[in-house]
Design a protein that fits this description.
Distance between the termini of chain B: 45 Å
Oligomer: heterodimer
Strand content of chain B: 15-25%
Number of domains of chain A: 1
Order of helices and strands of chain B: EEHEH
Largest interface: A-B, 13 and 15 residues
Radius of gyration of chain B: 19 Å
Shape of chain A: globular
Strand order of the largest sheet of chain B: 2-1-3
Largest sheet of chain B: 3 strands, antiparallel
Shape of chain B: flat
Helix content of chain B: 10-25%
CATH architecture of chain A: Up-down Bundle
CATH superfamily of chain A: Ferritin, core subunit, four-helix bundle
CATH topology of chain A: Ferritin
Chain lengths: 252, 94
């Protein structure tokens, strides 16, 4: 997707984060530990896919022509996706899924809080809508962190292992590149660097209550915003995009 | 997988409803989780504005065998029914 305006590229980033996260969570449909949690997880997945649609629809309107939300979801290859690496990692076990969700929700909650003040009215409206459901996601996630962290020996170990594996991917949440710098100066985008302290405080408090350790991982990776992804995103897209690739323009 | 979970009964008050109505039951680890699952399972289509959950084990229920002694004696006491009573104006929800 070359030649997009700065705003469109930024909106697509937010859409990509939402779609890929939503798809990962949706992989639990019919596979969750029990029925109630299955419905809970798929609700979250739907929230994320719905959010992706709002961002993609807006981006498509900016781009114009024949571009639609589906263009972004189904007709781009791996290198064109600009989601954070954190959201594309395979779902792992239940602890990994919950830990990833919690770390992300703790970030996106204040992010949407700040995006509500965007000078871009459309982004502000989407942030307002998505912010409400995020409050619920975060509440759900926090309780699961406590339940698993302060649960059995096995649930504690799995949760700590998940956090240790995920931690190196969280640095990317708080990185800002030239594109975002310029949109921040126009009041359109959010300066995520300013959110790290709040995020760390939310996360540390919950991990403390859950008898879990804040990881001291030394390594960190990035690349998602520039299209350099982990190997797993290609497999995810293969499944996500198959029908539209095999039958272009297919409709329900 | 639900062996360790408890059963909860769910009551929802709809937007225009005046009271909570029993809508079903679900499994959860504790009351707080039951409340969230009730939200996810029973209010997906905007069914309610308030939820109650109560552990099923805390409900004491009458039994089939109680029917004879509980209800049959009321069959011949029609005067207990307020069927002939005219409602004052403005009383809608009696």
């Amino acid at each position: 997707m070359k030649g997009l305006s700065d705003t469109a590229r930024f909106v697509v980033r937010l859409g990509d984060d939402s779609l890929i996260m939503g798809h990962r969570v949706s992989e639990w449909a019919s596979r969750a530990p029990f029925l109630e949690e299955d419905l809970g997880l798929t609700n979250v997945a739907l929230d994320f896919v719905g959010r992706a649609r709002m961002f993609y629809q807006y981006a498509a309107e900016i781009v114009g022509g024949g571009c639609t939300e589906d263009t972004f979801a189904f007709q781009r290859d791996v290198r064109d996706f600009t989601n954070l690496l954190l959201v594309e990692l395979p779902r792992g076990d239940f602890a990994f899924t919950i830990a990833r969700q919690f770390l992300y929700d703790a970030y996106i909650s204040p992010y949407f809080g700040a995006l509500k003040n965007s000078t871009d009215a459309r982004l502000s409206a989407i942030a307002g809508k998505a912010g409400k459901e995020t409050t619920y996601h975060l509440r759900r996630g926090r309780e699961w962190m406590l339940r698993l962290g302060d649960g059995t020996t096995e649930s504690h170990e799995r949760m700590q292992k998940a956090l240790d594996e995920l931690w190196g991917y969280t640095a990317e949440l708080f990185e800002v590149d030239a594109l975002e710098e310029s949109l921040i100066s126009e009041g359109v985008a959010v300066d995520s660097r300013l959110l790290r302290e709040q995020w760390l405080s939310t996360v540390s408090t919950t991990l403390g209550e859950a008898t879990l350790q804040v990881p001291t991982t030394a390594w960190s990776v990035n690349g998602g915003r520039t299209g350099y992804h982990t190997e797993s995103l290609g497999y995810l897209l293969a499944e996500l995009q198959f029908m539209q690739r095999a039958y272009p323009g297919l409709r329900w | 997988m639900t062996d360790h979970l408890q059963l909860y009964e769910v009551f929802i008050r709809s937007r225009r409803g005046l009271d909570h109505k029993h809508v079903g039951s679900l499994h959860a680890d504790d009351p707080e989780q039951a409340l969230e699952y009730a939200r996810d399972v029973y209010t997906r289509r905007g069914e309610g504005v308030s939820i109650w959950v109560v552990a099923s084990r805390n409900i004491t229920a009458s039994q089939e065998s109680d029917c004879e002694s509980f209800y049959d004696p009321l069959d011949d006491k029609p005067y207990r029914h307020a069927a002939m009573y005219e409602l004052p104006e403005g009383v809608d929800s009696l």
